[in-house]
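quick one, 378 residues, struct below
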Amino acid sequence: MYFRDIIGQEVLRKQLCSCVDENRLAHALLLTGPNGNGKLPIAVALARYILCSNRHNGEACGQCPSCIKMDKLIHSDLHFVFPVKKKKGSSSDSAPISDDYIAEWREIFLKDPYFGYADWLTMLDVENQQPQIYEKESSEILHKLSMKSREGGWKIMIIWQPEKMNETCSNKLLKILEEPPAETLFMLVAENTEHILPTILSRSQRIEIPRIANEDIAAALQKRYLLESEPARLIAQQSGGSWEKAEAMLKVNNDKKLYLELFMTMMRMAYKRDIQAMKQWSEQVAAMGRERQKELLEYCQRMIRENFIMNFRRNEMLYLTPEERNFSIKFSPFVNENNIFGIMEELSEAQKYVEHNVNAKMIFFDMALRMIVWIKNR
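---
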């Protein structure tokens, strides 16, 4: 991960490079901000830049021994800490550390540096466990940073999701965070700073990373996925400045024709009160699998919002494909202030039941039946 691989955030990149070049970088940085803004990729790109022996023009050289090791995240002076789970069969007092899962960590980062916490949980296959950073990790951190740099330069510790550190672990790191060894840098990459001890926060320089600009997301979608400009623009506008969400929406876009067809069918069935067709429709959706069911419900909620807005004739606020717009021209009058909250509540309730693994046929058949009342209530 180089600075040139970061999506957007040009001002921040220049500021960080300047801090390194002028030797005025704080010894402990807290990188935070909205989800999907590139906090972890920025931390790794900054680490590469610091460790590079021949950096120039705001970028690492890519040729020195340090850069070659960074290509595989195997630099001996770069350490990672992240939430982990206990391995099956381990004793209750045998706490894992990040190094036990370093192979999985390298694999997921090298595949997609913008991965999210849910992706990491999937990689860990956590089942019913709640990953955390255990007390034992603090001893590992203190040991690694007490040793001399193997490459003769900086030692860098990136702690991802520091809010997952238990309190004992956090307290043991307070002294080294306040008085670290020379040429030692902590980078705490956090999603929710409210769950981090105030004493940790007070010892770190907070860097609030903004959402990624829509134009930067659109440009990245066109470059990396060869999207046309208009689809890229629509996804960027709906992503909320999150590259993680933009990629998720791109995946949904591949299924969007199916979701649009299912949405249209449900609303037409509700208008006609076709109970038999609703039963068949619910069986079709039940066979799709839980993740796609959740995506369908999110898609339905978006379509309801868009159709409600269409009634105000504010085209600049609409983000509809031509196919969606064609259906919405006739459907939008059926979504208004009398029923929008009821419809959205039904979709939200269904989503909650799907997440709790309730019988899918029952969820979607019941939801379709309830739509009859709301569609007629206009």
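The mean pLDDT is 90.
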